[in-house]
Every structure is written in structure tokens, then in C-alpha cells.
């Protein structure tokens, strides 16, 4: 299989994730978009690591997974706190700060 | 069978980071095992000691780095050269000052942090927590973790370390911005916005790292820099990757197309944390940006310079123009910090040898003035309704005539603003002079021109605040602020006691003693409108305050008399910042020499 296909797939997934973050209103869904972006990067990293015959990319992929897990903890804590206050996780409702 | 060789680690070179992160882990243990009363004392002291320890470690490493040019640790994952060490020293110093502001508490024992962050705002749980006098001391370990990330960030020698350091510094900050005691809703909202945008930006940075790895086949800065030298068919990967990494770093710096989070987060976060973010994050991110621009992609100057030039110009102009129309002091300082990010970027874009030292020096100068300014904002308070305690008076209209009641505080704030504006004899002037001359030397004179013009324009809104504090207020200023009615009544009654305020910086810095506030604060409680009366008063007095977002409980934010409240540490921090700003402004040479001698990157 053509090696660039993996990169194309990763780019498509990354773009889908970015569009999710930018277009969806629910904070949890937007956050899922971020996770999709991170995992698209992981796919590309693992592929490039094999392509270059070098382990650094795979090591970075592991670090990204750990970081993503930490980010989930922090992110869901914030989203749950704001949901408990407002009974809504929509990012459009969070509009008190402006000017 | 086992070919594993344990790596050589130069632990000494990592000591500033290790001290801070070790103390952070210790802080988590203290949080788990110490009783609440002990935590309140132990946590701030532990945090202060850790950051001071990091500062000492930097000082111990200094001579070595100056002699040898630096150390490469862990095969290049961390590079401790001159710029990295200077940035670490500046970050540790600024973190020390912000921790002092954070440790400050009002007379009623309230700090800037909510008693129970997880409680729903306005709920019975929150009221109970407030009555029981709980304190969320987890903020100190969180600040230490963030500081640890900031110490690694500018020293990162490969993209993996860069990414991990970015996350280590960001994740605690997302949480910290949601911990404000007052205006819980705004604080939570700031936290959500910062988190979503920050996570998005770090995902972009990660994809940039992936593309650079795809191009160079290595994550090390040195290898990537070597790979940029010979052109190949994959140049698109290289340029796109470098652009995405720069976007991630510029987001942290708060440069204009990527700045949208800055004003909201700076306004919603607890004020001491805002000072910490505005100063330390910016300095650390600039350190990382400098290394990336000078070490990894100097070969791409022709491709990246247009983007960086555009970002620097838009940042300077945008930050200045929008700051001029703000009516909230925290928001104004937020936009002014965006403008300063632009000035700092001119030094980065210059890609000139002078630029490194100039940017580092400006980072120090800007950080000290920023923490001082936010420290003053944290101290200027009014009494809130009911049992809410003291609330920050962030509406600029409430600062009218501050100088009359608190001359020292107003003087300090005025000096910080003049330093921001870059008036000679303050440190800010030399900082700006340094980055602009580096820009001219690097052939970026249009940037320097825009910088000088926007600095002149920025002086307008800084001086406007000074005019407010010194020459407005009292009688006959009905056009300035509707809120001033209740305020003025208190102000006039305050005049007599304020006249007897003792002067001298020693009074402000005396530990444990409040600013010379007590006499007029007492006057206010007896003669000024009581919070309850103000809340019930007809709209005239409270309209301007009502325009501000409602307090979580739905209660009216009473326009109580504005006064300075501190238990000591914040006054010490503001005093230190004031002394540093003036001293560096008058006698800059030692600091300039110190920074200039080591401002060379290891390849």
C-alpha cells in the first residue's frame, strides 16, 4: 500500500477533528474533536516512525496518549463543573465575558 | 540479551526543575495527609521555598553556563544554555512574586481563591464552605506544577519535551483560572474557554510536530535544523509543520490572531493567577519561541518572516487599539499584555544576535510590572453584599481618586503603567529600546516604527488611568461615572482620615501590617454606606456596577467604598516590583550585562 495514504488519512481525521471543535456547540463534543485531532497525529506518528525506521515517533505517540488522558481528566472536570452550575454544556451559553 | 544502557543524566543542570516539581509532588502529599489548618500555612511556605530554591539553583548554575556556554542533558532533550537559564531565572523570580500575591488574604481571611471550587456557585454547599472558612490550598501545588512546566519549556531541546512541557504548564492553568472566589460563573467560563482553545492550539502544535518529524526523521532540534539545510521534495511538510508549531507557541504568547482567549481568561481568572499567567507563561513561551526561531528554523527565514512580521504588527496595533476602549481594569491590562506580546515579537522576528538578550530583558521588565499591576488590582476592593466579603473593584470608574486615599498604592500602579508605556527612567523604556534597536539591527525597521507609534498611542490609555487616580473623583465629576455617587460620598468622608496617612515605602512593606489603609477603612465602616444599604439603594448608585455580569447568587454587587485590603504579602510583592521597576529603569547596566553575557544559544 502506498505509504502516503496513511498521511492522507491522518490529515483527513485531523481536519474532521478541527471542524468538530470549531462547529459543534456542545463542549463535550468539541472536546471529542480535540481527542480526534490528537489521535490523528498518533496515527501519522506511528506511520512515519515505521517509514523512517526510527523509534522516536512511537515514543512520542505514547506520550501523546498519556497527555490526552491527563487532558480528559482536567477537561471533563471543568465541563462537569460548568454543567452543574448552568445545566448546560453548550459553549454558546457561556457568554458572560465579552467586550 | 539485554543491551540496555542506563543514560547519563546531568542531574545538576536539571536542579531548578527538579526542586519545583519535587515540591509540587510534596504539596500533593501535604494536601492528602496534613490537617486543613496546617495546610493553610504549610502550602504557601512550601511553594515559596521551592521557587526560591529554583532561583538559587539557577544562580549556582550561572557561572558554569557562562564559562562553558551550556550543557546538553539527556542526549539533547533538554538544553541548558544561557537563554534557557535566563528564562528559568526570570520565570522563578516572577513565580515567587506571584505566589506572594496569591498568599495574600483580606481582613476577613479571604484570599482570591474560592473556599470550595467544586461547589456549585450559590449553593448551600458553597455557603457552608464559606462559613466554615475552608480554603482550597490545592492551588499552590498546581502553581508549582505549572511553574515546573514553564522551567522546562524554554530549555526543551526536542519536540517531544516541548510538547510535554507545554501540557504540563497548561493543564494546571486551565484549572487555576476556574478557582476565583468572586464571580464564580465568570471564572468557570474563563476556565472552559481557556481549556477548549488551549487544547485546540496544542493539538495544532502536535500536528506541526508530526509534520516536522515526517520531514526530518528526528524530533531533535539540532537534527531538524540540519535537515532544513538541504532542499528536498518534502519542503511543504517542513513549512507547514513549522507554521503549525509557531501557531501553538504564539497562542501561548497571546499574539493577535490567536489571542481571543486572553481577555476573557485574564478577566475571569483569580487576579493573582492572572498575574502569574500574564507574566510567567508569556516569558516561558517566548523563551521556547526564541529557541525555535533561532535554532530550528533560521533556514526558513524567507518562508516564515512574512507571517511573523504580520503577526507582530497586528498584535501591536490590535492590542493597543482595543485596550484603549476598555472600562474594566483587568480587561485593559489583558489587552495591554497582548500589545506587549507584539513588542516582544519584534525582538524575536529581528533574528539578530542583539534580539535574544533584548527579548529576555524585556520579558523580565514586563513580567515584574505586570505582577505588580495585578497585585494592585487584587488589593483594591469594595465590600460585597451579605457575607460575600471583599470584592475586587475592577471597574475603572471605581478607581477615581484612588491616590487621595491610598497614595502609595496609586503611586505604585502609576509607575507600573508608565513602565508599560515605556516612559524613560522606568524599566519599560529600556526594554522597548532594546527590542526596537534589535529590530532595526536585524533589518526590521518597519516593525520598530510600528512599535514606536503604537507605544505612543498606548501611553494615552495608561495616562488616562493615572489621571483617573490622581485628578478625578471627589466633587464635580458627574460625567465620569455614575457609580461615583456612592463612592464619592465615602470619598469625601474619607478625606479627613486619608490626610493623616503615614508615608514611606517602609510602611507599605512592613510585613503583617496592612497598607496605611486601616484608618480610613475604619472611617468607612462607620460613616460610609453599609453594604446592605447600598444594595437596597435606588438604581443611581448601582447601575454601572449592575452592567457588570451578575454575581452567582444573583445578588446585586454593591458599590461599596473602594479601599485597599491586604494582609501583607501582596504589599511586599508590589513593593518589590516597584523597587525593581524603578531600579532597573535608573541603573540598567548590571542587569543588561548579566543577560547579555549569556544570551547565546547552543546549536
Describe the structure.
The complex is a heterodimer of chains A (99) and B (603). Chain A has 99 residues and is mainly α. The mean pLDDT of chain A is 90. Chain A has helices at residues 4-23, 27-52, 56-86. Chain A has one domain (4-86): Helix Hairpins. Residues 475-558 of chain B have low confidence and may be disordered. In chain B, the strands form two sheets. Chain B has a three-stranded antiparallel β-sheet. In chain B, helix 5 (139-152) runs antiparallel to helix 6 and helix 14 packs antiparallel against helix 17 (427-441). Chain B has 25 helices and five strands. Chain B has a domain at 307-531 and 558-595. Chain B has 603 residues and is mainly alpha-helical. At the A-B interface, helix 1, helix 2 and helix 3 of A face helix 6, helix 7 and helix 10 of B.
Helix-strand blueprint:
The complex is a heterodimer of chains A (99) and B (603).
Chain A: H1 4-23, H2 27-52, H3 56-86
Helix pairs in contact in A: 1-2, 2-3
Chain B: H1 15-33, H2 36-68, E1 70-73, E2 78-81, H3 82-102, H4 124-132, H5 139-152, H6 159-176, H7 184-216, H8 221-229, H9 235-253, H10 261-268, H11 271-296, H12 301-323, H13 329-349, H14 353-379, E3 380-383, E4 390-392, H15 402-405, H16 407-421, H17 427-441, H18 445-471, H19 484-499, H20 505-509, H21 518-527, H22 531-536, H23 539-547, E5 562-564, H24 569-586, H25 589-598
Helix pairs in contact in B: 1-2, 1-5, 2-3, 2-5, 3-5, 3-11, 3-14, 3-24, 5-6, 6-7, 6-11, 7-8, 7-9, 7-10, 9-11, 10-11, 10-13, 11-13, 11-14, 12-13, 12-18, 13-14, 13-17, 13-18, 14-16, 14-17, 14-24, 14-25, 16-18, 16-24, 17-18, 17-24, 19-21
Amino acid at each position: 500500500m502506498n505509504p502516503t495514504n496513511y498521511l492522507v488519512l491522518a490529515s483527513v481525521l485531523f481536519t474532521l477533528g478541527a471542524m468538530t471543535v470549531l462547529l459543534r456547540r456542545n463542549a463535550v463534543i468539541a472536546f471529542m474533536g480535540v481527542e480526534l485531532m490528537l489521535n490523528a497525529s498518533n496515527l501519522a506518528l506511528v506511520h512515519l516512525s515505521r517509514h523512517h525506521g526510527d523509534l522516536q515517533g512511537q515514543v512520542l505517540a505514547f506520550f501523546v496518549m498519556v497527555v490526552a488522558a491527563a487532558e480528559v481528566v482536567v477537561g471533563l472536570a471543568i465541563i462537569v463543573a460548568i454543567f452543574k452550575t448552568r445545566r448546560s454544556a453548550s459553549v454558546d451559553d457561556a457568554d458572560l465575558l465579552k467586550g | 540479551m539485554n543491551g540496555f544502557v542506563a543514560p547519563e543524566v546531568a542531574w545538576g543542570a536539571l536542579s531548578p526543575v527538579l526542586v519545583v516539581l519535587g515540591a509540587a509532588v510534596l504539596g500533593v502529599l501535604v494536601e492528602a495527609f496534613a490537617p486543613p489548618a496546617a495546610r493553610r500555612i504549610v502550602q504557601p511556605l512550601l511553594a515559596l521555598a521551592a521557587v526560591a530554591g529554583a532561583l538559587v539553583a539557577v544562580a549556582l548554575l550561572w557561572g558554569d553556563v557562562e564559562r562553558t556556554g551550556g550543557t546538553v542533558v539527556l542526549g539533547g532533550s533538554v538544553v541548558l544554555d544561557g537563554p534557557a537559564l535566563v528564562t528559568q531565572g526570570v520565570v522563578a523570580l516572577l513565580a515567587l512574586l506571584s505566589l506572594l500575591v496569591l498568599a495574600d488574604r483580606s481582613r476577613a481571611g479571604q484570599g482570591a481563591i474560592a473556599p470550595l471550587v467544586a461547589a456549585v456557585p450559590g449553593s448551600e454547599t458553597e455557603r457552608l464552605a464559606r462559613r466554615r472558612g475552608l480554603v482550597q490550598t490545592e492551588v499552590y501545588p498546581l502553581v508549582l506544577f505549572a511553574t515546573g512546566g514553564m522551567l522546562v519549556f524554554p530549555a526543551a531541546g526536542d519536540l517531544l519535551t516541548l510538547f510535554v512541557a507545554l501540557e504540563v504548564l497548561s493543564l494546571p492553568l486551565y484549572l487555576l483560572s476556574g478557582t476565583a472566589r468572586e464571580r464564580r460563573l465568570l471564572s468557570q467560563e474563563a476556565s472552559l474557554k481557556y481549556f477548549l482553545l488551549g487544547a485546540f492550539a496544542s493539538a495544532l502544535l502536535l500536528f506541526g510536530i508530526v509534520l516536522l518529524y515526517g520531514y526530518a526523521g528526528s524530533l531533535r532540534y539540532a537534527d531538524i535544523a540540519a535537515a532544513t539545510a538541504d532542499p528536498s521534495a518534502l519542503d511543504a511538510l517542513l513549512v507547514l509543520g513549522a507554521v503549525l508549531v509557531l501557531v501553538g507557541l504564539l497562542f501561548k504568547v497571546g499574539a493577535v490572531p490567536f489571542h481571543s482567549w486572553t481577555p476573557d481568561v485574564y478577566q475571569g481568572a483569580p487576579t493573582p493567577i492572572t498575574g502569574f499567567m500574564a507574566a510567567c507563561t508569556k516569558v516561558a513561551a517566548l523563551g521556547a519561541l526564541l529557541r525555535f526561531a533561532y535554532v530550528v528554523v533560521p533556514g526558513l527565514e524567507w518562508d516564515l518572516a512574512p507571517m511573523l512580521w504580520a503577526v507582530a504588527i497586528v498584535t501591536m496595533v490590535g492590542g493597543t487599539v482595543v485596550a484603549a476602549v476598555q472600562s474594566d481594569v483587568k480587561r485593559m491590562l489583558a489587552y495591554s499584555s497582548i500589545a506587549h506580546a507584539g513588542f516582544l515579537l519584534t525582538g524575536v522576528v529581528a533574528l539578530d544576535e542583539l534580539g535574544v538578550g533584548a527579548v529576555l530583558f524585556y520579558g523580565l521588565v514586563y513580567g515584574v510590572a505586570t505582577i505588580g499591576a495585578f497585585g494592585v488590582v487584587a488589593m483594591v476592593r469594595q465590600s460585597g453584599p451579605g457575607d460575600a466579603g471583599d470584592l475586587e473593584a475592577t471597574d475603572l470608574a471605581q478607581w477615581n481618586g484612588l491616590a487621595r486615599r491610598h497614595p502609595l498604592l496609586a503611586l505604585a500602579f502609576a509607575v507600573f503603567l508608565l513602565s508599560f508605556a515605556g516612559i524613560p527612567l522606568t524599566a519599560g523604556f529600556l526594554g522597548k529600546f532594546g527590542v526596537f534597536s534589535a529590530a532595526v539591527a536585524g533589518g526590521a525597521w518597519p516593525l520598530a516604527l510600528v512599535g514606536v507609534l503604537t507605544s505612543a498611542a498606548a501611553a494615552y490609555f495608561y495616562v488616562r488611568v493615572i489621571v483617573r487616580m490622581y485628578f478625578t473623583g471627589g466633587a464635580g465629576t458627574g460625567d465620569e461615572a455614575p457609580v461615583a455617587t456612592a463612592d464619592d460620598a465615602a470619598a469625601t468622608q474619607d478625606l479627613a482620615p486619608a490626610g493623616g496617612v503615614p508615608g514611606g515605602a517602609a510602611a507599605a512593606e512592613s510585613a503583617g501590617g496592612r497598607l496605611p489603609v486601616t484608618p480610613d477603612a475604619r472611617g468607612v465602616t462607620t460613616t460610609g454606606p453599609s453594604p446592605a444599604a447600598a444594595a437596597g439603594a435606588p438604581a443611581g448608585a448601582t447601575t454601572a456596577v449592575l452592567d457588570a455580569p451578575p454575581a452567582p447568587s444573583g445578588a446585586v454587587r454593591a458599590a461599596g467604598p473602594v479601599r485597599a485590603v491586604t494582609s501583607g504579602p501582596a504589599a511586599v510583592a508590589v513593593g518589590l516590583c516597584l523597587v525593581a521597576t524603578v531600579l532597573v529603569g535608573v541603573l540598567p547596566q548590571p542587569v543588561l550585562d548579566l543577560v547579555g553575557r549569556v544570551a547565546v544559544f547552543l546549536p
